[in-house]
């Protein structure tokens, strides 16, 4: 059964369509697919600067969501009246893909929940819940979430959806899917035939899902897949058309301005490649275009570079300033709690924060030692082994197809394919070198190297499929036959990577993963719900966890982040203990736990201790009474510099 009440957030897709219709009204030659891609990138641009940079959170949310609905109504009226030839431009393969894809995904999403993985709960979903719960900047003194590697670009638009339409886990996946869907729409409208345009858009979505659940599943909210699709579509919009500059350059300009916000380093690499393509085309076009048009292209190229730099510097300034402010507020709160003098000066925002960069950058510069080089060399060797043993080498068949098309295509198309191949190979090389550089500061990245290599390879695969379809839609009979043969051969190459049946089996998240999420969710809703009140919102708490249900979950970090995610609006720190390991229970250190409660300014202690020996150890170490609850909430009382714990359930019973 479909719960239609949970589909309210799907109005986001209507708002996005409304802004696309506005773009088409402003630019009378803009195709529907290009307008949808531009609207998606534009909404992300506005949401980031409104929600994150200017911190006008609620006004930005309502402006984007409700404003888009009004734009949709106005656009549909304009289409019916055929203003600026809008009606004929709306009826494109890109628009059909968008309408069918958004409806299908919204219906499918009623069965989705947040992906049960470490990354989703440590950052991607959690930062949205942080924004939604507190309506404040995510870096501050009381937060339990710090992440220096990602700019909260997607979170800003996800926040707008859930703020206006109410919290639903599936709504978090709408933004990432919209990026991929509108990218497919932009790709589809670069094919002259509407039928083959549908094939091109559908094949690009199929290609992004090829390499399995680690890269993209329906419900995954990480940035890799949408980042790749946005870059690929924007680059193809730039390269594959020469007719009207605004048709191809508007989506590319907007994507370049926001893609750096998808992932702080790889997004920057992609945006620089896009801006480089713009500059290259500007230089080449100066000989063939009139001076006003050439100047227009130059201004767009320079604007793209400026917008890339703007987001990078903006986030650097916000991150570093708020980190300093959070440290100040934390020290101030600690001094107040202990009645100590506090004379630290509140940090003021300075230009220095704009250029402080990311902490990883300074880590990299200080880790370039001979020992590190030897370690990284070994990791690169293991990455090569993982690459050769994976299915990624199949991607070279798509590169071969592009080379074949270069020789058989007409001169104009040959130039497009050559530039695409060169650009994507350069991008892949830069990306792989960046991956190797990350080994210096985060060696564990090598354990998931194939995931990152997929990111570098996917644009080449989509380009091979796209130009093969374009060849089928060409005028020359010889090229059509060659394109049909190449598309068939590439489809055969795709089959051993992931069969269609395997993709269908992953349309809905793996149900075996759901109980892992319930470990934390049920704790708050069923076990301690009666002991938590509205007055506890925002309080810092420490959870001591030792449960039988959680013992089969191998990832301790997953459990920690799940407890923190579902614990909101509490701010929860987590200590985990191995259920049934009674030898380890002898090492319980009450002094360390009490000092942690003090240092982290906790007001609550949460217990989920299902092992009797562990609870006995905690009771002895923390001074708990024998009849205190092993699964419950304790208030932390500070008197004369000492901590004591008061069980809420026992207090209620005494009353």
Please give a structural write-up.
This protein has 655 residues and is mostly helical. Helix content is 64%, strand content 5%. It has 27 helices and 5 strands. A 5-stranded mixed sheet has the order 2-1-3-4-5, with helices on both faces. The protein is elongated, with a radius of gyration of 27 Å. It starts with 10 loop residues before the first helix and ends with a helix. Mean pLDDT is 84; it is low at 507-513.
Structure characteristics:
655 residues; mainly alpha; 27 helices
| Helix amount | 55-70%
Largest sheet at a glance? Answer: 5 strands, mixed
Strand order of the largest sheet: 2-1-3-4-5
User: How far apart, in Å, are the first and last alpha carbons?
Assistant: 46 Å
Number of strands: 5
Task: Work out the radius of gyration.
Answer: 27 Å
- Residue-averaged pLDDT: 84
Oligomeric form: single chain
Shape: elongated
Produce a short descriptive summary.
With 655 residues, the protein is mainly α.
Please describe the topology of this protein.
Elements: H1 11-26, H2 32-53, H3 57-80, H4 86-90, H5 93-108, H6 118-124, H7 126-134, H8 153-165, H9 172-188, H10 194-208, H11 224-239, H12 245-258, H13 266-285, H14 291-337, H15 359-366, H16 370-389, H17 395-408, H18 411-438, H19 449-472, H20 477-494, H21 500-505, H22 514-527, E1 540-546, H23 556-567, E2 571-576, H24 582-585, H25 590-599, E3 604-609, H26 612-622, E4 631-639, E5 642-647, H27 648-654
Parallel strand pairs: 1-2, 1-3
Antiparallel strand pairs: 3-4, 4-5
């Amino acid at each position: 059964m479909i719960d239609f009440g949970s589909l309210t957030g799907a109005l986001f897709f209507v708002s996005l369509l409304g802004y696309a219709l506005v773009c088409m009204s402003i630019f009378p030659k803009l195709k529907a697919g290009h307008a949808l891609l531009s609207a998606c990138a534009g909404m992300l641009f506005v949401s980031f600067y409104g929600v994150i940079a200017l911190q006008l959170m609620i006004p930005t949310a309502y402006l984007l969501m409700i404003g888009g609905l009004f734009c949709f109504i106005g656009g549909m009226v304009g289409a019916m009246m055929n203003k600026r030839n809008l009606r004929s431009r709306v009826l494109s393969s890109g628009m059909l893909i968008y309408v069918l894809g958004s409806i299908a995904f919204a219906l499918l999403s009623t069965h989705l929940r947040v992906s049960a993985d470490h990354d989703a709960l440590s950052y991607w979903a959690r930062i949205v819940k942080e924004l939604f719960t507190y309506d404040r900047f995510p870096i501050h003194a009381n937060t339990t979430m710090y992440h220096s590697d990602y700019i909260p670009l997607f979170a800003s638009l996800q926040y707008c959806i859930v703020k206006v339409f109410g919290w639903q886990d599936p709504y978090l996946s709408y933004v990432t899917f919209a990026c991929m869907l509108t990218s497919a729409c932009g790709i589809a409208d670069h094919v002259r035939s509407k039928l083959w345009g549908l094939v091109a858009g559908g094949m690009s979505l199929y290609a992004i899902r090829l390499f399995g659940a680690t890269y993209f599943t329906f419900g995954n909210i990480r940035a890799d897949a949408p980042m790749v699709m946005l870059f690929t579509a924007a680059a193809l919009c730039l390269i594959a058309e020469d007719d009207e500059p605004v048709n191809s350059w508007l989506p590319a300009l907007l994507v370049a301005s926001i893609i750096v916000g998808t992932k702080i380093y790889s997004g920057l690499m992609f945006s620089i490649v896009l801006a480089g393509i713009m500059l290259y085309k500007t230089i080449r076009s100066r000989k063939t275009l009139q001076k006003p048009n050439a100047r227009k292209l130059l201004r767009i190229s320079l604007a793209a570079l400026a917008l890339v730099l703007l987001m990078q510097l903006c986030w650097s300034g916000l991150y570093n300033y708020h980190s300093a402010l959070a440290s100040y507020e934390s020290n101030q709160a600690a001094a107040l709690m202990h009645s100590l003098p506090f004379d630290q000066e509140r940090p003021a925002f300075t230009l220095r924060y704009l250029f402080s960069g990311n902490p990883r950058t300074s880590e990299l510069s200080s880790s370039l030692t001979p020992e590190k080089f030897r370690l990284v060399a070994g990791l690169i060797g293991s990455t090569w082994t993982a690459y050769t043993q994976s299915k990624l080498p199949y991607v070279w068949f798509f590169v071969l197809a592009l080379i074949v098309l270069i020789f058989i295509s007409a001169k104009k198309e040959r130039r497009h394919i050559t530039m695409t191949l060169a650009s994507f190979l350069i991008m892949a090389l830069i990306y792989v070198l960046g991956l190797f550089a990350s080994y210096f500061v985060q060696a564990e990245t090598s354990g998931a190297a194939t995931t990152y290599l997929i990111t570098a390879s996917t644009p080449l695969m989509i380009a091979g499929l796209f130009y093969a379809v374009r060849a089928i839609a060409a005028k020359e009979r010889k090229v059509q036959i060659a394109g049909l043969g190449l598309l068939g051969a590439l489809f055969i190459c795709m089959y051993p990577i992931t069969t269609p049946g395997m993709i269908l089996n992953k349309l809905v998240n793996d149900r075996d993963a759901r109980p892992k999420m319930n470990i934390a969710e049920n704790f708050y809703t069923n076990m301690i719900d009666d002991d938590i009140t509205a007055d506890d919102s925002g309080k810092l708490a420490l959870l001591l966890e030792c449960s039988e249900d959680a013992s089969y979950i191998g990832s301790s970090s997953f459990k920690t982040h799940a407890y923190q995610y579902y614990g909101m609006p509490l701010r929860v720190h987590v200590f985990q203990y191995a259920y049934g390991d009674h030898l380890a229970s002898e090492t319980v250190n009450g002094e360390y736990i009490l000092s942690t409660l003090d240092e982290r300014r906790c007001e609550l202690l949460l217990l989920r201790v299902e092992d009797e020996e562990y609870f006995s150890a905690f009771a002895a170490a923390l001074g708990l009474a024998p009849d205190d609850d092993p699964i419950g909430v304790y208030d932390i009382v500070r008197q004369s510099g000492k901590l004591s714990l008061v069980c809420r359930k026992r207090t209620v019973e005494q009353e």
